[in-house]
Each structure stands twice: as C-alpha cells, then as structure tokens.
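Intended use. Records like the one below are meant for learning the mapping from a protein sequence to its folded structure. Do not use them to infer anything beyond what is encoded.
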Amino acid sequence: MLAGAVRVSAAAVLLLAAALKLRSPRQSQAGMSSFGFESPLSRRLAWGGAIAVETALAVGVAVGSDGAAYLAAALQTIFAATIGSAIGRGKLGAHCGCFGPASKVGWIGLTRNLALAAVFVMIPALDGVELSSQGWLAVGLVISLLISGALALALVALAREVGMLRLRLGPNSALEIAEEGPALGSRSGLIEGFRFGAEEEFGLAVFTSPGCRVCRVLGPTIELIGREPLVELARYEEDADAAVWQREAIPGSPFAVVLERDGLVLSKGTFNNLAQLEGLLAAAERRRRQWRNAPLEAVLLELNRD
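Structure written out for the chain above:
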C-alpha cells in the first residue's frame, strides 16, 4: 500500500510538470534558453521532448514499472545537473519553464529535482513494505508538514501578486508626463541599442545615474525584469550616455521607456519601485493591443488624453 501511494504521488508530480509546460507553451519554450537552447526550433524540441518523457515515465511509474522509476530518477538527476550548470553560468533567477512559466533557475529547483530523484530511486524498495499504525502516523505527519509548507509558499506568492496588482492600479504608478522623454506613439532612436532575439516583444530602456540612491537600490530589480522572456533590456547611464539623455529629453533617474520591436514608444515614466516598473510594461502591452485594433483618430485622442 505504501509503495502504491508513493508511486501515484510521484507520477502525479511528473504529470503536473508536463501539464504546466503545456499550459503556457510560449513562455515555457522561452525558458529553455536558460539551458543553452538558443534557436526557436531547439527550444520547441527540448520543450516537447521534456513533456513526452515526463508523461511516459509518469504512466510507467503509476502502473508499477521499476524501470520507469529508475529512469525517472535519472531524469530528475539530469534536470538537477542542468540547473546547476545554468547557475554556474550566471543564470540564477532566469526563467526556466520547469514547472510552468513562473519557474526560475535557482537552488530551490535544484534541491527539488534531487529530492524527486531520491524518491523515485526508493520506490522499488518499498514494494512489500508494511507500516505499523505509528509508521503511517509518521508518514501522515510528514505529508502534512510538506503540504503546509507548500501552502505557505503559495500564500506568500499570492500576497505578492495581490500587492503588485494593488500598487499597479492605485495612485502609486509611474509618473508619465507628456513633455518628459520621447513622445508616446513616436519612433525612437533608442531602438538601435537593442539586440532582439526571437522571443522578445518589448524593449525596456532604463536610465540611471551614478549618484542616484534609488537607482542603486533598484539595480537587482531592473536586472530581474530584464531576464523576463519577452523583455530586452538596455541601460543608459547619465555620464556615459549623456548624448542619448539629451536627445531623448530624459528628466532624471530612474526613468524607463518601453518600446515595441519597431521602435514605437508605448509607455514611459519615472519609477521608484518594482510595481511601477512592471506597471510601465503592463501599460505598454495594453496600449499595443488597443493601438493595433483602433483607428488612427482614436489613437491620437488617447495620446492627447495621456
């Protein structure tokens, strides 16, 4: 009974990983670039191969195949080694698509894969093992603790998302002034500083200053946003890029401009925290959808209103 319960639970984890990849294919495929898959074709093949292997092994483990359990352990070990290699190449915090688009390269993912590998290795040895009432009580306690930990992490993540949404929709938004920075709806020369890959949809130009305390504090945040699969980041420092600052009428720092791949300015503004920077990207995505489907007169009306 114990072996059966562990088999089903472990197989469910594999199926969940495959389902989360299928749920957001574009973002999950983009995350494959963290592991060295540079071309769109290689990312699609790696993504599809991972889903197929995880699904097949999940079925094999669930029906009682010891071979499938050992292969699943080997797969998780390979995944852990791949994440470790990515961390060693400076990809810590990058998106990986391991458990859906929100998954990132990190020590938590590496530890998770090693723990799963250990579980799959132990599954064949559990066949025929019978637990006493105290043994089952201990197993139930461990499972309860694991579930409580997972729920706590989910609650923290949910609280962060709710907080980000409240900040984005509330008065604490980026300061967008028409006279500051390049004009909304114009084609900016900033686009020349970007090297877009196949997946990036937005160019994020961030302007900082050496003496800006807020810029220093937000440095890791800016780099984190720059690792988003759909965002290409370019930074302009006030002293080193004074000509660009003057040409684009940048009022101060930190300041950000979000552009489409063709250089169209979608949003801009002074920001002081992560929520405001994410708000500029959200505004850019909203405007892009509206402008693509709206007549020119409506676009000009919105720009005048902004």
